[in-house]
Amino acid sequence: MEGVASPQVVFYGDDFTGATDALGTAARAGMRSLLFLGVPEDGQLRRAGVLDCIGIAGAARSMAPHEMRAELAPVAALFTRLGAKVLHYKCCSTFDSAPEVGNIAVAVDVLRTGVKQSWVAVVGGQPELRRYCIFGNLFAAAGQGGEVHRIDRHPTMSRHPVTPMHEADLRRHLALQGLTGLGSLPYPTYAPPESAVSEALEALVASAPAGVLFDVAQQADLPRIGQALNASAHANGSLLAVGPSSVLQALAPARQPPAPAPAPVAPAKGPAFVLAGSLSPVTARQVAAARSFETAWLDPAALADAQPHHLDAIARQICEKLAAGRNVLACTAEGAPSSIVSSRALAEAGGALLARVLAATTLHRVGIAGGDTSSHAVKALDAWGLSYLAALSPGASLCRLHSDDPALDGCEIMLKGGQMGGEDVFERLVHGTP
């Protein structure tokens, strides 16, 4: 692309919380990174300057297949124009998806048109978040410090309200969505010598699979995977990689030296506002631990109805509390709101509410909890990008908002998924980190 240096990696996050996690992963690895809140225009890319990693935050995780195709086609076209080596489709570390919602096979079908190699790399775990893939089967911890479960027996993900995980073997799970013919590279392959992974990958690819699923049993597996992917991308042309932020962890060590340890996060300058969508057990515990906040409970059915007068009334109440110097946490009442209303309608209404609050008051720090809620809430703002500031907690990045609106530009915003972060993550948003 004329006037724009080719990045090393381009990633698309299938929701905004995952996209900020990937942004933080790349930044902490020393990669010059910026996350755009949509496919960037040429002028925005030129303004951003030289970048090693370009991210695009999206909402494909909550979309039907036809919506995903329309969403992702411009991403594939942009990747082709930029000339990067790796296109990363960043999905949740639990791979929760379904044929009719957030279909990963559809994403692969669209995005592989932008790369040269026909096979797709699927990286199956993220050990720092206690997600592991062993002989193709996915395991995940239930909250920070919780017991590790096979994903189809996970107390939350097996009963996810939109995309419940009923199959632990990722090859079978993805085949149900249409991505068949995946080969497998099990973790014992990663034993020395260093050439073992590349040789095993080369042999697998020679059999023309649709893709290769990489086990990830421990953090030390990732550099070995990254070496193999980098070697293949440089020798055989650009490739598509699917998986959580561990894809960037695998790729980055071979490209950049680690960044220095980040400075502590300072306390918020003024009151903070947090919006939490439908509550996972992890977020519910975080809400209960948010002692520095005044809680504004939201009725999910009334919120999802999204009547302007109702949203205006809620926003006024929140802004009055913020104006009085109080931190406010607005969240849906405990229960299962998705059984009452559409999760997507709830997320979109949350976005409309956040836009009203930020239009009425200038805030220095904001938090959003919930993958779909984060995606639709940030899309409702007049902003075009995010840059990484610091990690508040595992899987919860604090970012700087970029906007042409002076009232929004520079606002610090934390996005976190339902399963991410420690119990004190909202307190850290207000008081900073040690």
TrEMBL record:
Xref: InterPro entries: 4-carb_acid_sugar_kinase_N (IPR010737), 4-carb_acid_sugar_kinase_N_sf (IPR037051), NBD_C (IPR031475), NBD_C_sf (IPR042213)
Domain Four-carbon acid sugar kinase nucleotide binding span(s) in chain numbering: 274-426
Coiled coil segments of this chain: none
Molecular functions per Gene Ontology: kinase activity
Keyword ATP-binding appears in the UniProt entry: yes
Pfam families registered for this protein in UniProt: NBD_C, SBD_N
Record keywords, A-Z: ATP-binding, Carbohydrate metabolism, Kinase, Nucleotide-binding, Transferase
Superkingdom of origin organism: Bacteria
Four-carbon acid sugar kinase N-terminal domain segment(s): 10-251
Sequence similarity: Belongs to the four-carbon acid sugar kinase family.
Name this protein carries in UniProt: Four-carbon acid sugar kinase family protein
Upper taxonomic lineage: Bacteria, Pseudomonadati, Pseudomonadota, Betaproteobacteria, Burkholderiales
